C-alpha cells in the first residue's frame, strides 16, 4: 500500500472519520502506522517525553530528531511535523526555512503550525512552495501565555466569530486540513459544516471529520487527564506493575531463572 498523502487526507472530508495520533519514537510509530491515517510528531513531545510544563521550550532540532525516528517506523501513514514555537512566526521566509528542514531532514511530508488569520500569509507561502500545511486553530497551546490557560474556547456565542474567521482564513490560504482544538460542540459542528477541508478535532466533539489525541494520553500514561481524553488503556499502571514485579524478583533472586541463563558450551552447567 502506498503512503497516504496530504491530498488523500483532504479527499477524506465528510467521509469515514480520519484517524490521527501523535508519535515521537520508532517502535510506537510502527504500531500506530497500521491503524492511523496520519501521525503527528507533535511539539507535545516536550511535555510527554521531556517533562516540560508547556510546549514553548521545544526547538526545531528536537522536532527533527523525533521526526526522523517516527519516519523510520511509519511506512503508510502521512507523517506531519509540528513547527515549534519561535521557528515560524517571525516571517513567511523563516517559516519556509524551518519547514524545509523539517521535511528534508526527516522524510515527513507535511508540517503543522498554530494560528489562523495572522498565519494565513505564511500558510499560503508554504503551501505554494511544496510544503503541505496542517493548520491548527481554536485552543493554541503555544499561545498559553497570551490566552492565559488551556481552557476551552467558543463556549459563549460571542467567542465564535474570531475562531470561524481563523478556520476560513487557513482554508483560503491552502491548508490541506485543520486541527481544531478545545472548542464547544456547536462551534465545531458549524466550522466542520462550513469548511471544504477536513477538520480534525481534539477536544472538539464528534462533529469533526477526524480525531487526534496524544497517544500517551489516550493510553493512560499519566495520572491526570483532561475531560476530552478517553483512556483506551492503562499503560501507566501496566508499566508500574511490571517494574514492581521485576524489583521483587531481583530482590528475592527469583529472576533470572534457568531459561534466562547462559550455560558453558558442551555442558549443562
Ligand atoms: O503537539 C500536539 O500533540 C498537538 C496535537 C494536535 C495533539 O498539536
Ligand atoms: Na502541537
Description:
The chain is of the alpha/beta class and 269 residues long. The chain has one domain: TIM Barrel (Alpha-Beta Barrel), CATH 3.20.20. 38% of the residues lie in helices and 14% in strands. Strands 1-2-3-4-5-6-7-8 form an eight-stranded parallel β-barrel, surrounded by six helices. The radius of gyration is 21 Å and the shape is globular. The structure holds 3-methyl-2-oxobutanoic acid and sodium ion. 3-methyl-2-oxobutanoic acid (KIV) binds at residues 22, 40, 42-44, 82, 179, 202, 212, 214. The active site is at 181 (proton acceptor).
CATH superfamily: Phosphoenolpyruvate-binding domains
Shape: globular
Low-confidence stretches: none
Order of helices and strands: HEHEHHEHEHEHHEHEEHH
- Termini separation comes to 50 Å
Task: Provide the helix percentage.
Answer: 25-40%
For the residues shown, what is the average pLDDT?
97
Q: Assign the CATH architecture.
A: Alpha-Beta Barrel
Name of the level-1 CATH class: Alpha Beta
Q: How many E-type strands?
A: 8
Measured on Cα atoms, how large is the radius of gyration?
21 Å
What is the number of helices? 11
Organism: Kordiimonas pumila
GO molecular function: 3-methyl-2-oxobutanoate hydroxymethyltransferase activity
Family: Belongs to the PanB family.
InterPro entries: Pantoate_hydroxy_MeTrfase (IPR003700), Pyrv/PenolPyrv_kinase-like_dom (IPR015813), Pyrv_kinase-like_dom_sf (IPR040442)
Amino acid at each position: 500500500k502506498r503512503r497516504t498523502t496530504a491530498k488523500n487526507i483532504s479527499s477524506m472530508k465528510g467521509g469515514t472519520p480520519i484517524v490521527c495520533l501523535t508519535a515521537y519514537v520508532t517502535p510506537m510509530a510502527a504500531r500506530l502506522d497500521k491503524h492511523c491515517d496520519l501521525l503527528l510528531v507533535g511539539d507535545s513531545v516536550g511535555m510527554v517525553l521531556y517533562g516540560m510544563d508547556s510546549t514553548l521550550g521545544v526547538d526545531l532540532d528536537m522536532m527533527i530528531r523525533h521526526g526522523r525516528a517516527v519516519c523510520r517506523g511509519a511506512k503508510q501513514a502521512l507523517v506531519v511535523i509540528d513547527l515549534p514555537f519561535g521557528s515560524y512566526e517571525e516571517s513567511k521566509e523563516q517559516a519556509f526555512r524551518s519547514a524545509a528542514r523539517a521535511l528534508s531532514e526527516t522524510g515527513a511530508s507535511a508540517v503543522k503550525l498554530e494560528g489562523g488569520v495572522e498565519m494565513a500569509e505564511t500558510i499560503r507561502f508554504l503551501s505554494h512552495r511544496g510544503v503541505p500545511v496542517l493548520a491548527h486553530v481554536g485552543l493554541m497551546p503555544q499561545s498559553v501565555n497570551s490566552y492565559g490557560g488551556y481552557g476551552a474556547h467558543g463556549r459563549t456565542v460571542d467567542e465564535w466569530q474570531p475562531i470561524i474567521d481563523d478556520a476560513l482564513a487557513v482554508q483560503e490560504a491552502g491548508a490541506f486540513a485543520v486541527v481544531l482544538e478545545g472548542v464547544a460542540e456547536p462551534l465545531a459542528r458549524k466550522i466542520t459544516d462550513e469548511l471544504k477541508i477536513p477538520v480534525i478535532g481534539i477536544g472538539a466533539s464528534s462533529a469533526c471529520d477526524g480525531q487526534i489525541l496524544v497517544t500517551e494520553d489516550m493510553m493512560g500514561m499519566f495520572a491526570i487527564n483532561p475531560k476530552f481524553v478517553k483512556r483506551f488503556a492503562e499503560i501507566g499502571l501496566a508499566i508500574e506493575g511490571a517494574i514492581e514485579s521485576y524489583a521483587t524478583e531481583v530482590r528475592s533472586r527469583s529472576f533470572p531463572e534457568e531459561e534466562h541463563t547462559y550455560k558453558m558450551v558442551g555442558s549443562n552447567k
